[in-house]
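#data-curation
PF: Archiving a pair of folding outputs for the training set. Convention for this channel: one message per protein, sequence first, C-alpha cells after, nothing in between. First:
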Amino acid sequence: MSNPSLIDFLASKNSESAAQDDLVTRALETVRQHLEMDVAYVSEIVDNKSVFRKVDAPGLEELIKPGDEKSLDDVYCKHILEGRLPELMPDTSKEPFAANMPVTEMIGAHVSVPLRRDNGQVYGMFCCFSAEPKEHLNERDLNITRAFAGLVAEKIGADLKHSEDYDEKRTRIEHTIANNEMSLVFQPIVDLSTNQPIGFESLARFSGQPQRPPNEWFDEANEVGLGIDLELRAIRTALEEAASLPDGISVSVNASPFVVVDPRFGDVFDGLDLTDIVVEITEHAQVEDYGALGRALKPLRNRGLRLAIDDAGGGYAGLQYMLLLHPDIIKLDISLTSNVHTNAAKSSLASALVLFASQTGAAIIAEGIETQEELNALKMLGVHRGQGYLLGRPAALVDALEMLPADDKSAELGRTA
C-alpha cells in the first residue's frame, strides 16, 4: 500500500506551489515520515567535517540544526563511503563496527546515502536516523531513500553550478573593469544634406575572453549586479576620449534607465560642458518610474545635455519614452530602417515618427542605413540625419576624426596644440 507522504510529495513536486517550495526540505520530511525516523538531514562534507545544511527534526531542533558540524571520525558518513558500514542499518548495535562507536549510543536505526555531483564527486550525505532500532526497514526503504537522494543531489548540483557560474561571471566582469579591458569606437552621425559628420556615437568593445558581442558583456554584467558599474566605465571612457572632438561635434553615450537613476550618474558629468553631449536611452529597457528618470536627467538637460531615445520603433517602451521624457532626438531602430524602401508598413511608421518629431521639436536620426536605396527612401520621408555602415563604420577616435571636414580637423589641431 502506498505511503500517503510519498504521494503528497510527488503531487506537490508537479504542482504550481512546488516551484515556491524547498525540494530538499520536502524530501527530508517525506523520507523521515515514511521511514518513521526522528531526524533527517542533508550534510556537506567539508575538509574532515560533516556540516548539516538542511535538517528535519521536529521537536529536536535544539539538538541538531543547520550549520552544526561533526568530525567525520565521530559519525557514520566516512565509514559508509569507504565501505566499512552499510547504507541501511535497521539496528546499529548489530553492526560490529558501528557498535564500537560512541555515537551509536544515541542512534538505534540509520539510513544514509551519498549525494554525488554529475562529475561523481561526493557532496555529502542524505541521512535519516532514530533513537530506537527499526527492524522493519528493508532494501525497499533504502531504494526509496536513494531515489529521493537522487532528486536532492540533482537540485544541489544545479544550485552549486549556478553559484559557480555566477562567481565565474562576476570575476570576469570585475577583471574587465579593473584591467580596463574595454575600448571605445566612434561611429559617425551624418547630416544627410551635406554627407558630413555632425557627431559620433561611442560604442564599447571588449578585448577579454570569451570573444563575443558587446551586448553579451553588458548582459552578463547585469546578471551579476555589475551592469551599472560597467556602463559607467564606458560612459566615463567615452567622455574622456571625446574631449578631443571639435566644438560643435557631438558625442553620444549609451545609458540604460538603471544607470541614469543611479546616484553616481550625475557625477560623471561634473565640470563638463554638456552642450555637445547626448545621452541615448535604449527603448528596449523597461522603465518602472518615468518620473525618477526625468528628475535625474533634468539638471543635466538644464546644463545643455541632450536626450535621445535609442532604437525607437524596435521595442515596447518607445511611445512612453517619447511622450513622457520629451526627447531632443529620436533614433529610428535598424529594424525599421532596414529595407524601408520595399516595406510599406515600415515606411508608414517611419513617416509617422518623422511627423511626431517635427511637431514636438525633436530631431530624427535613422540608424542602420546600409544601402543607397534605404538612404534615398529615408530622405524622401523627411529624415535629415543618419547613421550606418553606408555612411561610416565605427572606428577608433583618431580614425573617426579623419572623417571630419578639413576645417574642423584644423580647428581641432589648434585647440589641442
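PF: Second:
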Amino acid sequence: MAEPVAMPVPEALFASLRVGGVELPNRIAMAPMTRSFCGPQGVPDAAVARYYAARAATGTGLLFTEGTVVDMASARGYRGVPGLCDDAQEAAWRAVVDAVHAAGGRIMVQLWHCGRLAHPRATGDAQPLAPSALTASGPYIDAADPGTFDGHLAYVEPRAMTQTDIDAVVASFAQAAARARRAGFDGVLLHGASGYLIHQFFNPDSNRRQDDYNGDAAARARFACEVVAAVRGELGGEVPLLMGLSQFAVNDFAAKTWHTPVELAATVQCLKAAGVDGFHVAAHRIDTPAFAVDADPQQRSLAWHVRQLSGLPVSAAGGVTYSTSIGESLMGADSQVTDPAEAAAALQAQAVDLIAVGRAMLANPDWTAKVRAGRWRELTPFRREMLASLV
C-alpha cells in the first residue's frame, strides 16, 4: 500500500504567541467543551487527567478545560460537570494540571456559572439565579445526555439576583480563581459566552434590571467587570486572564448580544480596563459576520472586531475544522474534515491569534501532530456518539 502523501504544513499555526505571562509554542488550542465525566461531586479523576494530557502530548499549544462551576449549589447546568469550589476538586485538578505539564502542555481553567440555564436536573431544589426573572427560551439540551436531544425538557423560571447575590457570585469566582492558582493552572478563562450568567448580564434580552447593572452596553458589562477585577486580584499580574464572548446562546443560536461595533466596544473596553489579557470568542463559524450589513458593511467576524477594539490576543472557535456547525453535529449531521489551511488563513488575515479546535480534537487527540506532519487527510470525522466516552 502506498504511503499517504503529506500535505503542505500551514506554518501560521505553528508560530509562538505570548498571552499575559505565558508563552505558547503555537497557535492551536483545545476549545473548552463540556464532557460531564466528573460525577455528582464534580471531581475530575484519572481518566480526565489522561484525556487532557493526551492532547498536550501531541503538541497542542494550550488546553482550555471544560466549563468548571464556581458554586455547586446554583451554578450547574448539567450533571457530571466539574467544579473548583472545594478542597477535593482543587486537589483533583492539581493532578490534571500536573499530568498536562508532564506532557509538555499548558492548561487554563474555564470558570463558569450557568445562571438561568442552570437546571433542576443538576441543581436539585435550588432555583436558578439570573439578572432578571426571565425564563430562558428553547428546549434544555445536555450534550452529554442523548436522552435530552428530543427537546422535551424546558428551562425553569430563575430568581432575579439581589445585590447580595451578585456580591456572593463575584466572590465565588474570585475564590475559584484562587484555587486555580494553587492548583497550578497556567491561566483562567471566564465563561462570558453562550447564554450563561455573565453573558446574561451582557444581553438586553435577558437583563431587564432597573439598577446600575443595566442601561447601555457599558452598564450591562458592570457585573462582568466586577468579576474580572475580583479574579485579577486573586491571580496577580502574571497569570493570564481571558474572557469568553459570543453573540449566540446555547438555547438561542440566533441571539444577538451586541448590534453595533459601538456597543461591543463599550463592553470590550470595560473588560480590558478591569484586567483581562485577552478573549476567547465563540461563533457558529469562525468567519460568521458579527453584525447586520448596515452596522458593518464589510461583514467581519466577532473575533475580528474584538481583536481590533481591544488590541489584545483573541482565541476563536467555530466550525473551522469541520464542514458542519456544532449544532448540526449534535443533531446527527455528518462532519467532514476541512483543510487546516482555512484556520491558518484566519491567523494570516489577523482576524484571530489562536485557533481553538473543538470536535476535531475530541475525535483526534493527535490533531496537532497530524496537522504538523501534513497528514490532516487522515483525521477522523466527528460523530455524535463520540460524546459517550472520554478518550
